[in-house]
Structure formats: structure tokens, C-alpha cells
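== Sequence, C-alpha cells ==
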Amino acid sequence: MVKNIIWYIFIYILCVGCDTQSTQFCETDCYLDISAPYLEMDENSQPIQDAEGNDRVVKQLTSVKDTPKIELISPENLRIDPAAHWEDPIGTTPYIIHLIPMYVQDIVQKMNEGEWKRLSTAELLSTASSEDDNTTRLVRDEPRMDPLDTDAGFGEIIDHKIVWIHKNVLRKEGVDWCFFTAGTQFLLTDPKPLLEMYPWLRDGERPYVMGCVNIEAHKLYPAGTVELTQELQAAANDIWNQRFDNVKLALNKRYHIRRDRNIDLDALFRSVPGGAVEMDDPDTDVRIIETRDVTGSAYAEQDRINMDFDELQGNFSTSTIQASRSLNETVGGMSLLANSTGSIIEYVLRTFSETWVEKVLKQMLRLEQYYETETPLLCDLQLSLSLRQTNRRLD
């Protein structure tokens, strides 16, 4: 079971990561096969018959997929109260609204199974445009069109159109309640206590975890490593672009051309090696503008920005060594460089581990304990518990 968890999800969170834990073998998300009935037998291995003389058939539930699931949620799809405490936003917010994009056919399937209340397709589609044109999602997906925008032409088939389902967690009189709505207009489920939907949770705990890699006081959404280094990255890109433009100008000159002169401009601008340009008076019609080659200051500034970027990011690369010649590339100098960068990486990993990984794994372990169905493992646990109790009596 553990090897089926998608571990790479833990790594792909740079700024703020929110997730929810669930299992695909429970009341809401289960994959069961009931197409394998069997005859109920008595102690003599004879079929048991009902009052009408027919053999009694028992439907057998066989799990097709029984794996835990950790879902990574985009920050724009999780709404919490802005006044929540920055130390524990998920635990102190009075409400959580989880926006879930779903296909119409998946919603209709849940309605046919009796899990959600019945709504018409027109009612569902009337809520489809409530979350279109989300600015955060548009910036992240630029320059592509929003794939979750139903009106963008991606959903010509009604069953394949996107409808935003809201999973609402609301705290009332100290108890968390959970219910689903289609947009903000239609109620899909009646409110239930959160602990009934997620029985492995502890009192006051919620199936959402928000983590970060940097701590900023009094901010719900602290800046990630990419945001902290974006100014240095922009400065490095700007210097490189200017230096590259200077090289282009040094190789392909600019010209001052006398107006209304008989000059082959296409051949002049093409700048082909070994080419010829026709003109009446080469001495007066065209004047070449000489561009000085880039100086060493541009490369020195680039090296300084790279050093600042590596120091802030916690990288230890060859560029850091090239820019730190004062250490003479000795073993002790390399160790000093590695220690300074290692402390930053250790801080990032420690912060991410304590704010996200540990909390998620604790909930995952309790989920595994509650929904464990592997008989050999349960027998081993029972035997181990019995041996411990026996040893305690002997002691």
C-alpha cells in the first residue's frame, strides 16, 4: 500500500502547498466489483436454500483498487478566511471552501448512485462560469488558454463540460460540518459532521494541510524560493539580454543612410558575408556606426548576481567556485562554501518537513490504520499485540 503513494507530490510544492487526504476504498471513493456472487454453504458444504427452495446467493464485494490518495490543491482553489492566524491557517479559519472542477458526466454519475441530490443539466451548467478567468490560473498557464474555461471551446459535448463543485467545511459551535454545493446556488448534500466523513481525524483536525518552505510572520501565504529570487533572476536576464544585443551590434553594424539615394537596402540590411551592395557614392551615401565590444564589467556584474542568487537559493555550483578564487580552491575553502549553502537547504527542508510532510504522513498513517483490509497484516499485528501483553504479564 505504501509503495502506491505518489511521493513526488511532496517535492513539487514551491510556495504554499495544500492537500487533502482520502482513500479510494471508503464510502465516497471506492472501486468495488460485485459481479462475483457465490453460494452460501452450510457446515456440510451443502447450499443453503431460502423459503422458496432457491439457493441463497451472496454478493461478494471485491476491492479493485485500494490505495491512499494525497491530492495537491492549487492555492487559488482553496478559499480560507483572510483573518485566520498565520501560524495555523487551516486550523483557525472558520470555513474552508475547496473548489473542485468536475465533468458533468461525473456529477450525474454521483447523482444516479444516490450520493448527491438530483439536479438538472441546465442547473449545473448555470454555475459553470462562476470560476472562469481566474487570474492566478491564467498567469500560471500563460500563454495557453484556460483549460477549465467551459466557454473557451473545449467543451462542445455537454458531458465533457466543466462544473465547479464547492466542498465546504464550516465550523459551527465548535463542530466542523461538511457539505457539497454546485457553485454557490445549489445544495448537493446535506451537512454532515466532518468526523463522520473522515473518521480517522482527531478532534479539531481537518483533512487539509498547508505547508511552506519559508516562514514569514503574519502572512498566510509566505513567499516561496522562486518569489524571493525573482528580482535577481530578472536582473541577470536583463544583463544577459543587453550583453547579447551588444554582441549582435558589434557583428552586424548599424548604418546612417542618406535619404533619397539609390542604395540597395535589402542587400545592405541582409549583411551576408562576402555580399555586395550597390550604391552611387559609397563614401557619402552610407556611414557605418561602430559599436564597441562589451567590456569585462558586464561579465563581472553577471558573476556577482550569480553569487547573490546562489547564496539566497542555497546552491553550490561551479559558478560559485569560479567567483570565489580567494579561497584558492582548497579542501577547506570548498568545505566552507558547502557549509554555508547546506545550512540554507537544511532550513528549507526542515521548514517544509515540519509544516507539511510530517502532518500529512501522520494523517496518512491513521488513514491506513482505519481502512486496513489486508488480512495477513492484521493477523501479524494481532499476534504482535498478544505477545506484548503476554510479556507484560510475565514481567
